[in-house]
Amino acid sequence: MPEILIAKELRKSFDGLEIVRNASLQLPAGKTVALLGPSGSGKSTLLSLLAGLERPTRGEVYLDGQALSPLSEDELCLLRREKVGFVFQAFHLIPTLSALENVAFPLYPTGVPKKERQQRALDLLQKVGLAARKDHLPAKLSGGERQRVAIARALVNRPRVLFCDEPTGNLDSQTGGEILDMLFGLNLEQAMTLLMVTHDQELAARADETWFVRDGEVSK
Amino acid sequence: MPQWLYVWSELLLRRRRTWVNVSLIALAVGFFLVLTLLSGAFQAAFRAPLNDVGANLTLQRAGDVPQEMKGPVLPCSLAPISGNEVKAVKRLPGVISLSSAFLFWDFAPDTFRIVAGFDPGEASGFALLGKVLAQGRFLRPGDRGQVVLEKAYAGERGLKPGDRLVVHGSNFEVVGLVDASRLSQLATAQLYMPLAEARALAAATPGVTAVHRLGRADVNLIFLSVVRDKIPQVSQAIKALLGNKVTVTGPESFQRAIGGLLAATDRFGLVAAVLSLLAAALLVMRTTAANLRERKAEVAVMKAVGWTRSDIVWQLSAETLVQTLAGGLAGMLASLAGAWLASWITIPIPLPWDLSPRPHFLPGGGEQLFREVPLQPVLDPTYFALALAAALFLGGVAAWMAVRAVARLKPSEALRHA
Questions:
Q1: From A54, A80, A92, residue closest to B306, measured CB to CB
Q2: A80 contact B CB<8A
Q3: Which of A8, A80, A216, B349 is exposed most, by the fewest CB atoms within 10 A?
Q4: Which of residues 88-117 of A touch B (CB under 8 A)?
Q5: What is the pLDDT of residue B258?
Q6: Consecutive H or E run containing B89
Q7: Does the pTM exceed 0.95?
Q8: Burial of B166 from C-beta contacts in 10 A (0-12 / 13-18 / 19+)
């Protein structure tokens, strides 16, 4: 199985403090990986580096064969638009847009016709069981519903890799379980690669691989 | 291209922020326009007294005080100006037209009156009194032995067209009455007659000849129409030509006379307008900065899900543009309302004594005369174009801030701390 994500001797420092130390990783396409580690260990920074949201101090990341460091900010945005989806712990939905428009949000600048992007967004809302609430603003949705909208948004551009930063961190255990079922279901259905930062051992147990981050160093 | 659905939802659902931005821009634009319109209205008001007599400058020369207040005498502010001097003034660059008059006081045994002689064929000065004819007819070129009376003076003495009147031994027929109060209180008289006859009457009078050597073509009051932006140069040239005793009255003379707050408002109107714009720019920058802080995570999400910098800047600029245009439009409407309200205001413009000389020792002679001028703000499209440019400038300030903030924002940091 080809590698969708490769990191080579990745380092990241902030103000002289090394947060990620010499991380070298390979993630085969279609796999699920849980990134475990204590708070402040560098998990989220590593996720940002792998997704091209942050530039490494040293080393290189290859996403679907493409080296990230030569790319400009805008080229990185375009790469993420095509190949990456994000699910955040705090959902980060646009508060002034409806659930449907939030899902369609990544497609706004892509030139996909309005009708098509709305249909795609509606299909995804149906998939996450929220079609009936398509016109609701995020403030009118529960935490679990917001996260489901966020997952639908992450899928609307049909990404190769889904990066999830503690996707169940703000949810109760039952809702968290439902969200995980949905994410692992997507992995099975669409062979979508999942990389999830988590503290949750249960989630880690369901992943194909578990990577541990401690003091910026990554081990399997 | 911006996503208009997103623009509208941002503006409508974040009402407080939109309201603050639109109000600030409206306030700045409205204030700028009202001050500019008022400044223009004041300038027009200062021109009004002279406009009434078809001129924008008057010219007089100060002379000696009459030795005795008996028969015709020349007021000390109206010494003769020779025919050659008049010709020289007429030739000055910037002078469009000139009309001259001869005005004197007549202390008759039973009355006092001001007599003005002028050429009825002129395009300015006393010739314009024909517009406010109350009864009979106005003087015509070539008239001799005919006079027109001020309506109030005629009323006091029971005179009417067709009656006869003796002025210093000469017999005149009253042909008409005029109501000068409807036009201007500037350089008014009670009795108006042809220029040559007024000059001849004065020249034959010891009260005048004892003080002045009067030539055949002399006058003592000149009305000038001058190219507006050459008024200062023409004034200077006249002073150089006729000496220090000459008095040139222009719009700025009324502006100086009015003094106080109104003149200050006019003088500092532009400065205040510019300061208001700068203050609004600072406030817009402040609210934009707050807005960007509030939306940091949102912009970070935009970047994370694939919006490029230009996509985001377009989006934020479109929001700013809509607010700017709405604020600009509201400011313009407010200024129109302000202009309408201002048109109800009348300002009293003090007339210099020199221009309406009356003996101080007579009842009311020392009183300050005023010309009541309604403010008439002119809705010049240039001002509105300037206001729109000002609104766009404010919008530009906000957009520039957005561009800088978007360029600096690191999505990973913004999302981590959100």
A1: A80
A2: yes
A3: A8
A4: 88, 90, 92, 94-97, 101, 105-106, 108-110
A5: 67
A6: helix B83-90
A7: no
A8: exposed
